[in-house]
Amino acid sequence: MGFLMLRVRSLFASVLAVGLAACGGHSSPGSPTPPTAAPQITCPTDVAVSGVAAASQKVEYPAPVVTGGTAPVQTACNPASGASFPLGSTAVSCTASDASSRSATCSFRVVLTGLSIAATKFEAFGDSITAGETGHPNLLGFDNIDIANSYPTKLQQSLDAAHPGQGIVVLNQGQSGARTDAVAANIQRRVPVDRPEVVLLLAGYNDLTQGCGTGSAATPLCRDAIRGVGIGIRDCLKEVREANGGVRFIFVSTLTPPGPTGSNRINRDAIVQANDQIRQFATGPEVTVVDAYTAFIGHESDYVNNDGLHLKPEGYQALADTFFAAIQATVPQTPLFR
Prior knowledge:
Low-confidence stretches: 1-8, 15-27
CATH superfamily of the largest domain: SGNH hydrolase
Structural class: alpha/beta
Order of helices and strands: HEEEEEEEEEEHEEHEHEHHEHEHHHE
Shape: elongated
Largest sheet: 5 strands, parallel
CATH architecture of the largest domain: 3-Layer(aba) Sandwich
Mean pLDDT: 90
Strand content: 15-25%
Radius of gyration: 36 Å
């Protein structure tokens, strides 16, 4: 009898232990897995890039650190690492999203500082190409001038984008119909008054239209006109130097090639020979030759208007880009810092 009671008590204790174990929260094979923590994301510190020599630059930055979340966890940043960032401060937003549709965000900034350019006042001298004529007469019979698409306006925009907040000014002194002697006279009048640090010069078309036109470049009249372009450029440079206006840099452009057709088209050989004259006379330590002719080769139908001489907006932009590249390569620049 005593043995039987002992046996019953032992069995009861075993059952009680199993029950207590179950009540104690130990997981059985069929219990659900506890949920993971929501994703957390930590962005890198602000990224600073100094001495940027353009209006924008590609920047790579460290990836944000992500913890937690139900796999797979996707991470994305906008703008992405390796994207092109403009000068100034740009906010970057990053998001981590998990398979349970939970997300976390963080942000930081990419700050680009550029270069301070050593000259801020530019003055462009020339004829109708500088003025921005389109080659399309208006209702009064005069050629339309598209100031917004003229190369000095486009150049100002490029300089402002590359050197924001530096007070850059590009003055447009283009005179429709002006020969090189008239351009030289305008330089004599304006440079002492305006006192630019940089003079931009593109002239000679009207010397050639009056002496050559679409005819042969070998006629005596055309040969005289071609020589006149070189002498005119020499005189323009003389006037700049004698003006005592503080000019430190002079950029002299070659003439652009003619369009395929048009009533104002100039003989291509005459332009080539005139450009040789320009290169011969555009000399001196402060002078840089801007080769617009080469920049236009192969793009005449895209850049030159139907009259064969004046430029389309794309042509004026290309001319501005050619001047801009020469200026960036010539005028000293120093890094700005935050």
